[in-house]
């Protein structure tokens, strides 16, 4: 497993490795939303990715990078949903057993999907300590290889491939790219790809006010906890990983926070105007652009929609 920050070659290798298994997701635009934002937005639609989220990329890269010896006792991770699905999906592709720890309040749609890929699920209370404790028990009992959801360089390199594709497919120089931030896997990968493949492109993050740890960590240089955790963006609840924070502090320009009302309004806008299913965590980035129009005014902006795994029985509008 990689022990240093992925360089350009590592991200290119990751992209080659996972390409047979993933979708090269489309980049969509909306004139209506461009007018509203006062900027030219290019939406990278990872809601159309395998498993319905970008996390298929990092999960696949991490699993495909393991040796047969490492895979023989299976793989394990903890996740509220999208990374859980990614690891279950990737393990199924290589014929390895997946032991997934999920918080007992995970969305039903995500639990069902993980089970659908043949993974064995262990439920636990939704605290970082309980999650890690449950994984440690599995490692001890089964000898499974642990793939951290974000604090892992293979995962980061895999997540970086979304921005790499966006940069290649847009065909114009992007002034900025914005990605959501939870644990920081997507944001750190995006920041590295922008640095290597599109020098001069600034990277921003969108973060919910109800899980605003990254913005504090970004300023202090230490992994901070959010002052409170209450947001509809269920994919962005975790604090940053140390590996992610190091990359983010080096290569990210700013982290912009948004309220749940702003997230829901942006989500609704994408459903209504673009006709696409976007989960709240994926709408955070558009919410941040619309809230900070002066930052993005008249710029060409890549917007990474992280996923579309929504519980349709619980839509917020």
UniProtKB/TrEMBL annotation:
Q: Which Gene3D superfamilies match?
A: 3.40.50.1100
Please name the GO terms of the biological process aspect recorded for this protein, alphabetically: D-serine biosynthetic process
Taxonomic superkingdom: Bacteria
Alphabetically list the UniProt keywords: Lyase, Pyridoxal phosphate
Cofactor(s) for this UniProt protein: pyridoxal 5'-phosphate
Any Pfam family from its record, for instance, is PALP
Residue ranges of every copy of the Tryptophan synthase beta chain-like PALP domain listed in the record: 18-307
InterPro entries, sorted: TrpB-like_PALP, TrpB-like_PALP_sf
Per its record, what are the GO molecular function terms?
ATP binding; L-serine ammonia-lyase activity; magnesium ion binding; pyridoxal phosphate binding; serine racemase activity; threonine racemase activity
Q: Which family does it belong to?
A: Belongs to the serine/threonine dehydratase family.
Name this protein carries in UniProt: Threonine dehydratase
Q: Which species is this record about?
A: Dyadobacter koreensis
Phylogenetic classification of the source organism: Bacteria, Pseudomonadati, Bacteroidota, Cytophagia, Cytophagales
